[in-house]
Amino acid sequence: MTVIRKLAFASLAVSALGLAACGQPADSDSAADAASSAPADSAPEAAAVTFASLTGDAAKGETVYNQCRACHSVEPDRNGVGPSLHGVVGRVSGAVPGYAYSEANKAGHLTWTPEVLFNYLENPSRMVQGTKMSFMLRDPQQRADVIAYLETLK
User: Where is the signal peptide (predicted)?
Assistant: First the structure.
């Protein structure tokens, strides 16, 4: 048997095993039929979690904030790698005096509402392309908690 024929045979065997595991017959026409008859929306989509659907806990958020502490201070007028987060909720992006913002954040003119912060913290560069912030807080409940904590800093 040539190498090409061995590879073709191995490929067919793997396809047959995969289809058999799914309860489908092992011929290629059946695989095409199964794919074309499957409903387009058969895969369940994860429901999007929104800020409004969560209740933040400021005490837990203070603990979550420890991840932010390496770059951000919560003291007024004390910037670090990132700007001070004191009074961030309700503030316009690029507005902390003395901090060297990226052009993207200065030009963004975002108002840091809880909802905007919730979306931003999930993936900052998706929301503000060119931001310096690369840290992402993927867990929705942790984002809601840290925002509840930030809301106390006035």
Answer: 1-20
